[in-house]
Design a protein that fits this description.
Blueprint: E1 5-8, H1 12-23, E2 28-31, H2 35-45, E3 51-53, H3 57-62, E4 69-72, H4 78-87, E5 96-99, H5 105-116, E6 121-128, H6 130-136, E7 139-142, H7 146-159, H8 178-206, H9 212-222, H10 230-240, H11 250-253, H12 263-274, H13 279-292, H14 294-298, H15 313-349, H16 355-361, H17 372-382, H18 393-416, H19 421-434, H20 440-451, E8 464-466, E9 474-476
Parallel strand pairs: 1-2, 1-4, 2-3, 4-5, 5-6
Antiparallel strand pairs: 6-7, 8-9
Helix pairs in contact: 1-6, 8-12, 8-13, 8-15, 9-10, 12-13, 12-15, 13-19, 15-18, 15-19, 16-17
This protein binds nicotinamide 8-bromo-adenine dinucleotide phosphate.
């Protein structure tokens, strides 16, 4: 074969990824279960580069130069296993399968193990940036063996997004499922980012009394500062869009029930397993869930709320500035929690993930790309063993400067009855970390009282139990 890379699964993502490889000078073999997709790609985009259209699995594999590199871009889950089952018997020692779908990292670990036994490299790869990213340059998070990255890395670097300093947005994240784990957490952070932006919008709308068009302008202004990011930019676009049919703001004619595909939920499930507090991300997932419970919401509309209070023009402007502070501080917390989860996963699975490198490959191509990520990279480069992002002095100082406004915004939301679960969770996390003493001491006392679960003391080593039902003397256990 002559193709340096093959792509099977030519829906939006696979098609655009194949075109991206071809535009970068690679010969790309094409395959799809339904042959029409392969034909359409060649028909519409065949002149963009060298494609080898194939029909059968055998022809596809034969079209690839050795060692073969083939990208699977199908619906995550059973479809991925079906495709692997179809191709693996046709492959040889040293060939590389890249799974670019949104696989669960545990599936990736299993597939990697099974294929390794057959001498095949399996590279579970997170790809972020949606269809546009796949075509023009995504952020790429490959796992798998060092050896596979040696042959694959240069190609991925070519097709990836480039950060402002020209660096390719791809790095070998770590072995087996590390890439998909990091992609999962990226999506979890994305959920939190989106929810925080949503809460900022709701406050500007309900407390400041601003129109969607005016709020769009505020987001445009914020996008020139420290909040500069893709999500803030598209928020302004969505908010300023007017519905063609009704002439109303687009955001007012869209049903307010958010959907989800699963990576945010996985981020929270895995965080629970690893014991990592990702409260901001969890609230973002729950907020989508609440929005979707139409019956519950309909049955609850009569519930009492506080009397509405509208702000004067000057007050509203000052409040909008405070919301920017609250959004920024909450965002730092969301990223702190997300990076904690990556650090914990890395520890649990022995991945040795470079957290600064992860932040740096998210600077371009992906949905959470933001100026802010440079700062995270810098913080981890300065202190690779840093225990949490808030240990960075720069971020701590920024939160210190923002905290009064952050508190005012959360307090205002509470008194006005505007739900801001992610802002509030982020602030509670911050205050929990700061606290000199937590009520966990009382929790331990309760646990010891009802279940003899024992406790440790602040003043000496050992494990203790109080005889609550008896004379309440303390015994060492
Ligand atoms: P879809 O997730 O909609 O999957 C469609 C593709 O899967 C088609 O090529 C289809 O073939 C193929 N397929 C299915 Br479904 N079942 C199959 C089976 N049993 N055997 C062989 N092929 C099968 O496509 P997508 O939206 O392009 O996403 C592809 C992957 O990329 C997914 O894992 C997704 O989670 C991930 N991803 C998507 C985005 C995004 O923005 N959309 C971003 C990042 C990652 P057919 O044509 O014969 O039906």
């Amino acid at each position: 074969g002559t193709a340096q890379i093959g792509v099977t699964g030519l829906a939006v993502m696979g098609r655009n990824l194949a075109r991206n490889f071809a535009r970068n000078g690679y010969t790309v073999a094409l395959h799809n279960r339904t042959a029409a997709r392969t034909r359409e790609l060649v028909e519409h985009f065949g002149d963009e580069g060298d494609f080898v259209a194939t029909g059968s699995a055998e022809d596809f594999v034969a079209a690839l130069e050795r060692p073969r590199r083939l990208v699977i871009m199908v619906k995550a889950g059973e479809a991925t296993d079906a495709v692997i089952g179809e191709f693996a018997p046709l492959l040889e020692n040293g060939d590389v399968i890249i799974d670019g779908g949104n696989a669960h990292f545990e599936d990736t670990r299993r597939r990697e193990r099974e294929l390794r036994e057959r001498g095949i490299h399996f590279v579970g790869t997170g790809i972020s940036g949606g269809e546009e990213g796949a075509l023009d340059g995504p952020s790429i998070m490959p796992g798998g063996s060092e050896e596979s990255y040696a042959s694959l890395g240069p190609m991925l670097e070519k097709i990836s997004a480039k950060a402002k300093d020209g660096a390719p947005c791809v790095t070998h994240v770590g072995p087996d499922g590390a890439g998909h784990f990091v992609k999962m957490t990226h999506n979890g952070i994305e959920y939190a980012d989106m929810q925080l932006i949503g809460e900022a919008y709701q406050l500007l709308r309900d407390v400041a009394g601003y129109s969607p068009a005016r709020i769009a302008d505020i987001f445009r202004t914020w996008n020139t500062g420290r909040l500069e990011s893709y999500l803030i930019e598209i928020t302004a676009e969505v908010l300023s869009h007017v519905d063609g049919a009704t002439g109303k703001p687009f955001v007012d004619v869209v049903l307010d029930r958010a959907e989800q595909k699963g990576t945010g939920r996985w981020t929270v499930q895995i965080a629970l397993d690893l014991g990592v507090p990702v409260s901001g991300i969890a609230e973002a997932v729950f907020a989508r869930s609440v929005s979707g419970h139409a019956d519950l919401r309909d049955a609850s509309r009569h519930l009492a709320g506080p009397a509405a209070r509208t702000l004067g023009e000057d007050e509203a402007a000052a409040f909008a500035d405070r919301v920017e502070q609250a959004l920024y501080a909450s965002k730092i917390v969301a990223y702190t929690q997300g990076f904690h989860e990556i650090a914990a996963g890395s520890e649990q699975y022995g991945w040795n993930i470079d957290l600064g490198a992860v932040a740096s490959i998210w600077r371009g191509g992906c949905i959470i790309r933001a100026a802010f990520l440079d700062r995270i990279t810098g913080a981890y480069e300065a202190r690779p063993r840093m225990v949490g992002l808030l240990a960075d002095r720069g971020f701590a100082e920024e939160i210190a400067a923002a905290q009064d406004d952050w508190r005012t915004v959360v307090a205002t939301a509470v008194t006005q009855g505007v739900p801001t679960p992610a802002f509030a969770a982020a602030l509670a996390y911050y205050d929990s970390l700061r606290a000199e003493r937590l009520p966990a001491a009382l929790t331990q006392g309760q646990r010891d009282y009802f279940g003899a679960h024992t406790y440790r003391r602040t003043d000496r080593d050992g494990t203790f139990h109080t005889l609550w039902g008896g004379d309440r003397t303390e015994v060492e256990s």
